[in-house]
Amino acid sequence: MALQSVIDDLAKRPGTGELIPVIDPATEEQITEFRDAGPEAVDEAVARAKAAYQSGVWTDIAARERAKVLWRLGDLIDEHAKEFTELESLDAGMPPAQAEMIVSTCAEFFRYYAGWCTKLNGASYQVQMEGGVNSTHANFHAYTHKEPYGVVGLIYPWNGPLFNACAKVAPALAAGCSSVVKPAEETPLSAVLLEKLIAQAGVPDGVTNFVIGYGATAGAAITAHPDVEKVAFTGSTEVGKQIMRDSADNLKKVTLELGGKSPVLIYSDADLDMAIMMASMGIFVHSGQGCVCGSRIFVQRSVYERVVAGIAMIGDNLVLGGPKDEGAMISPLVSQKQLDRVLGYIDQGKKDGVEIVSGGYRLDRKGYFVKPTVVTGVDPATSRLYREEIFGPVVTILPFDDDDEAVAMANDTSYGLAATAWTTNLARAHDLGKRLNAGMVGLNCQLTFDHNVPFGGYQQSGVGKEFGYEGIDAYLKTKSIWAAL
Ligand code: NAD
């Protein structure tokens, strides 16, 4: 499917709400526009999903058949990798090599979860009960049975559209759920192609239903809908809290993958060249629009100056640009809104008297580009730039003297998504693995990911996990069944 036909299909989607422009963030030009799907479209999508679920057309087929469909879908995504790469580049402004790398991981979500389809087993228990209500039966066989949630809502952000979609659609399908899926309004293009491939792979009508619209309209309607049993959401902590509140009325279950302000500890005994390079890419890649980006770096005092200079130098030399810019390594921010947000934090920092070591300004060209920005001299107690998630290419660097101080500073946050420690002292590394208060800790590595390893945050960075077995268990209910012997 050619790029233009995806764009045309998006523009033709039915909807009742206002027109939403799709903007190329690297040029600020409008690619197309489409109508906000709105609450009516959500009602229809939920009705379709519920009917499909109740008919058993997907849930009741043999697990090995579901697995084959998922595998086929993975292969189709691979076959269309070039188109997906173009779509993600255009929509999110990503340099093609970055988009290609992300797209290459997406098909695997379907193959990975295809494997789980045939392995969703409960457990069995032998129970002896003395006396009890039914005194004739002292022995019981009890077992658990795994059942899919009926209709689930899957809501995801713009920072890796296809990746986020696949991370949710694949386990939901493998578990046997029907779903209503909402991409971010800023980056809807890859969803249009994915929707087509889902049908082509053999997922029956009504099982996976995309609605494309605003969060406040389509998204909120999914969360409020009484027939949606569970919502799996990736996005900001603020909206995650709103979703939890909106889900309270019918006690919907939620999985929330939220924001972060992830610490990176660099010790003087670390492989410093590697640590400086990885810590730089760990914040500047995709202009800092990654949930696990390490936006607070702490450096042992004896190597502090060297690390600050090294990260600033790398930030200065990274080539920013969009898909059409020769040699571009770093994408723009996704929207004017995101640009205003990031520049607002930088301005606030300047008013607070922080030191901007490098960057700190918007590029003088079209597109939402902010120069990678290194900040020192923040007051950890009061600086908003230091404490709040910016989701941009802005990093604060502070010195520390010993382990206790480093851990205390790293853990002094309401978030808890990821943390990293760079040190060649093995005992210290594993000790930090336990002491850092985050759902994911990298020891001498950053930006690591595997479909089989649980992903998710502590504290206000989330509820529940994605990926691995926990990622599919999030779409399953556990029923206990008792049989009197
Ligand atoms: P966002 O919370 O504004 O939006 C995310 C999605 O929620 C979008 O589809 C949006 O339309 C929808 N939405 C907005 N308001 C809604 C509402 N009231 N009800 C239902 N849905 C609603 O987030 P964003 O700005 O698009 O993305 C950036 C955020 O996502 C950052 O905070 C980042 O850390 C987080 N994120 C987290 C992870 C993770 O795995 N932990 C991964 C990627 C991004």
Automatic annotation (TrEMBL):
Segments forming domain Aldehyde dehydrogenase: 18-481
Single GO term (MF): oxidoreductase activity, acting on the aldehyde or oxo group of donors, NAD or NADP as acceptor
Keywords: Oxidoreductase
Keyword field contains Oxidoreductase: yes
UniProt KW Phosphoprotein keyword: no
PROSITE patterns referenced in this protein's UniProt entry, alphabetically: ALDEHYDE_DEHYDR_GLU (PS00687)
Domain of life: Bacteria
Active-site residues, as the UniProt record annotates them: E257
InterPro entries, per database record: Ald_DH/histidinol_DH, Ald_DH_C, Ald_DH_CS_GLU, Ald_DH_N, Aldehyde_DH_dom
Similarity comment text for this entry: Belongs to the aldehyde dehydrogenase family.
Protein name (Swiss-Prot/TrEMBL): Aldehyde dehydrogenase
Species for this entry: Mycolicibacter sinensis (strain JDM601) (Mycobacterium sinense)
